[in-house]
Amino acid sequence: MSIKALALELYRARQNVDRIQKEIEISSGETEQSLKDELKIAEKEWQMLRKMLDGHKESGSFKKRFNQFTSFT
Predict the structure, then answer these.
(1) Which residues contact 21 (CB under 8 A, 6 or more apart)?
(2) Interior/surface letters 4-30, b for 16+ CB within 10 angstroms, e for the rest
(3) What is the rounded CA–CA span in Å between residue 7 and residue 9?
(4) HEC per residue, 38-55
(5) Phi/psi class of residue 58: alpha, beta or left (left: φ > 0; alpha: ψ in -120 to 50)?
(6) pLDDT tens per residue, range 12-33
(7) pTM here?
(8) Is the Cβ–Cβ distance between 8 and 49 less than 8 Å?
(9) How do the domains of the chain map onto residue ranges?
(10) Residue 14: which H helix or E strand, with range?
């Protein structure tokens, strides 16, 4: 997946998180718990995409420079 596509998915995931947070603020007590569960899932998706984007942006030279430290395990 390209960086542009990841960034677009990250933006959509953030918009979804924001939408759910606004719905929680105006929701009644009976729907609030289901919205909170939905929010947890949406936040995890956003975090996963963020980590993917951050990892994809690292250059090859950066990875090679720190690759030597993984051989000590």
Answers:
(1) 39
(2) eebeebbeebbebbeebeeeeeeeeee
(3) 5
(4) HHHHHHHHHHHHHHHHHH
(5) beta
(6) 999 999 999 999 999 888 899 9
(7) 0.71
(8) no
(9) 1-6+27-58
(10) helix 3-26
